[in-house]
Amino acid sequence: MNIAWNDNAPIYRQLKERVVGMMLDGLLKSGDALPSVRQIAADYQLNPITVSRAYQELADEALVEKRRGLGMYVTDGARDKLLSSERERFLREEWPAMIERIKRLGLDIEQLLRSANTGSAQ
Amino acid sequence: MNAVISAKGLSKRYGNSVAVDNISFEIPAGRIIGLIGPNGSGKTTTLKAALGLIPFDGELKVLGKDPRTERDELMKDVCFIADVAVLPRWLRVSEAVDFVAGVHPKFDRKKAERYLAHTKLKPSMKVKEMSKGMIVQLHLALVMAIDAKLLVLDEPTLGLDILYRKQFYQNLLEDYFDENKTIIVTTHQVEEIEHILSDLMFIREGKIVLSATMDEVGERFVEVMVPAANIEAAKALKPIDERLIFGKAIMLFDGVPRAQLAELGETRNPGIADLFVATMKGTYA
Residue A122 pLDDT more than 60? Predict the structure, then answer.
């Protein structure tokens, strides 16, 4: 298996983001098991420490939990928790930046919103 | 005695030329260390010293033992795959397994056979009928079945195609490596293993020029795309390397805070290959 990692963030964070993405997309649901550290390390050719660190951060944020002897599982309510924190982050960081860019390009926000609602770009 | 290998003032000369020049380093357990250097920089000599294959000067302990005097004892816990590893051409797979089972107390025959079952190797096959990739698979099957504390890989994937190379590291990570084992690997294909490593050692002309964990490497080294207006300011921070692309300078810094560099231009983490080229500049000049 091959993933292109980018050069701007540590690999463990990119791996974590990937898992978070899978939770948001509903590919990993509450109660689902995460693949073992060893499996991920082998499949993605990563040091096991890198994988453990990504899992540890997910556990610290209570998105996954360790079940002794069994591995990591997605917690109840992980997706809701993620959705609310991601929404908050979008409104705090991405949306203001986007508005800034829309203004700089001289686009009409109202026009954009209308076309977004009708599903066409023009 | 936590260090798997500890070297103090290790030196090795061949006649008048110094292959390893007074190096000191420590390798803790549970790590995967990349020993990276140009041809003739002293990688193989260092490994040979650790394996007790050559005499040397200075102090060197491997798993707490002196490879010069306690080699037999040491070899129960150390495995080795060399790029020049030679198996007799007439040897059959089954004979190779029998042999290692006979000489090595920590060899698990079932494990070797299980691994071989996943390859195209048949017990009756002779080494002379095998491709280069298959010979490495046989080596790996024998070595992975030994419960050793230290595995030394000297250019293990040299001359193999990319499928065999990926498979090789995948097997190691899936079936072999754990926090009680340590792997030292030398290779010229650094991009392929950079995410597998936990530690990096660069060796040049017999000296260690960089020894750091991958975390430290990520923190210390930053590459910046510097626009023309900031070039003077950036140069004042003493980049260790620079090159020009599309009128922008790509500069590599060692130990300059990332926040400070971000003001000069877009930053990114350099790959090991970039670091290597920057560090080894002028080696063959």
Answer: no
**Contact in structure between A51 and A6 (CB atoms under 8 Å):** no
Single pTM value for the model: 0.85
Query: Do A8 and B268 make contact, defined as CB atoms within 8 angstroms?
Result: yes
Domain boundaries, chain A: 11-76, 79-118
Q: Given a cut of 70, is residue A47 above it in pLDDT? A: yes
Q: Could A45 and B195 be called an inter-chain contact, meaning their C-beta atoms sit closer than 8 Å?
A: yes
Contact A8 B198 (CB under 8 A): no
Query: Does the structure show a pLDDT above 70 at A21?
Result: yes
Query: Which residues does chain A have within 8 Å of residue B179's beta carbon, measured at their own beta carbons?
Result: 48
Query: Per-residue pLDDT averaged across A26-32, rounded?
Result: 92
CATH class of B217-279: alpha beta
Distance from the Cα of B13 to chain A's closest Cα (Å) equals 35
The interface predicted TM-score of the complex, written ipTM, equals 0.75
Average pLDDT, chain A: 89
**Superfamily the domain B3-89+141-205 falls into:** P-loop containing nucleotide triphosphate hydrolases (3.40.50.300)
Structure confidence at residue A8 as a pLDDT band (50, 70, 90): confident
Q: Which chain A residue's Cα is nearest to B262?
A: A8
Which chain B residues are within 8 Å of A7, Cβ to Cβ? 223, 268-271
Domain ranges for chain B:
3-89+141-205, 217-279
Interchain contact A49–B (C-beta under 8 A): yes
Q: In terms of CA atoms, which chain A residue is nearest residue B194?
A: A46
CA distance to partner chain B, nearest, from residue A47 (Å) = 4
Top CATH class of A11-76 equals mainly alpha
Q: What is the pLDDT of residues B66-77, one digit of tens each?
A: 999 999 999 999
> B170–A47: do the CB atoms touch at under 8 Å?
no
**A45/B174 touch (CB, cutoff 8 Å), yes or no:** no
